[in-house]
């Protein structure tokens, strides 16, 4: 069952055909028999079950016609489904019904095709085997008559199509359940475009099918044995489906998505929407040449997969505007080596609670704080509110211990971890929420493409630079707290290695983003794109004289990071000064010397040599390691690796040209260093030294 479930979640059986199978037909409502004008009403353009019911209750003949179509095509399926609910055999017969539905659903029309596809990633509703069967559905159906298509196009645009397009068709290049696509050319600009026209009678067919299905759902409520809220699930899905029928919304989604990624991911292409020539039933978009990423043999496929991973992470953790149809046919490699994403009819909004909860869970995972992770899973909707978490904690602990044993969080195998989490759903009140099923599908599609060319592809390793970037640069209180936890952990102990891990990952992300912009001397039509692997040396792609990490720490973006960084530097300077004092006194044999103190109530003698605790030594080592990293690019806690040139040059070399380049790189930050960082550092250091002096003196007073 687990294997079948994960195959279903990953989309292993997705039918990616470009054309309909032989003999496929699709029955729709006969619009001419609806007598639309007789009652002076119209169907709502948004999902409203009451208005839809009022419309169809006035047209019993049309409803009877549709029910006859449904009964002749799917009568045995509907009868069997009702029987399963009544006899409590839903789970037992799930696979049988899924096979039946898959075999007849294309003929039933768009509502049933889309419903089947939606259920194929709902492990909280269907059994694994049923999900697996429904993934074999194909949305490709025979094209409809070109005359009807052009009539719809002209009715929507309000003019002859020749007034808008100098070329169009003559045959569609693709046909699906909701519409078909023509290749054309705009008359006013000469730009090549894709023109999608909605299939006639889609709204009528979809709404009458929902009317019938809802009636069945209401009827099933009479049976106490049926605990599933069929009507509620149907209404939730139908509201989103109605949005997909509006091509204006799809165009808006396309534009919004492109805007949300253009800064960080210029190597991802989204077709431009021509709003002037887009209507509810027609959308005109930029035509993109290319081949399916899954079918490309080019050398840069692995890089494009990495870009795709970052793109979906950005949707999940940043914008919250998630492409809800991750499908091999929607990922295209363009001739200039960029990744194009298509089809924005169906999007999912991920709220801040989920976005931040995911990053918090990653922070807790890195520190193996499994008690916190279990609570995170409640936030993330894996575990229902009010569930007793004690039985689940040891199970999740074993799952994550196994995942982390291969080298820490960056080396986690995402699909194996997802499979282990899915396994828990069989035995505990633990579920895979719909949004996470979409994530598994998207990552599964990308990982499947990547593993063909790179068997060592590691998703989390590729994703870590983006996660680090989010942690280090986001100013939301929850992510700032997650950053603090990442560096200090549950025991609130500063971890220089984890801080350096984050800074190195940030460097990798920034350098990869700069590379993705392309060489400015190259033609704009052929940018050089590469999102470097997170495992590559951070300095390999950079020609900076100073580390990106150092520039970040000094920049406005690094303001919050500096807050606790300054605390550690102050502790380090304090420890270093006392360490040096001890070294000097030891050289003169004065390490045990005591000096008189002439103050009433205080001891007469105190130690001349300052004390160095274990914590002081660890702080000194951590601070030294961090400075070695920022100034020399080394992970070393040896003070001997630092020298005066490091502090004056901020560079790995000592040439005058390199010193000048280093100065130019950090010069924008020097005013802030002079007016903010240095005074703050001096203030904190003087406060700490004063406090320590008081503790050293008064701490020697006998109780």
UniProtKB/TrEMBL annotation:
Under Gene3D superfamilies, the record lists:
Transferase(Phosphotransferase) domain 1
Q: PROSITE patterns in the record, alphabetically? A: PROTEIN_KINASE_DOM
Task: Report a single Gene Ontology molecular function.
Answer: protein kinase activity
Query: Per the record, a Pfam family?
Result: ABC1
**InterPro entries, per this entry?**
ABC1_dom (IPR004147), Kinase-like_dom_sf (IPR011009), Prot_kinase_dom (IPR000719), UbiB_kinase (IPR050154)
- Residue stretches making up the Protein kinase domain: 167-494
Specify the signal sequence span. Answer: none
User: GO CC terms on record?
Assistant: chloroplast
Per the UniProt record, which residue ranges are transmembrane? none
Q: Which PANTHER family match?
A: CHAPERONE-ACTIVITY OF BC1 COMPLEX CABC1 -RELATED, UNUSUAL PROTEIN KINASE-RELATED
Q: Which family does it belong to?
A: Belongs to the protein kinase superfamily. ADCK protein kinase family.
Record-given protein name = Protein kinase domain-containing protein
Organism from which the protein derives: Ostreococcus mediterraneus
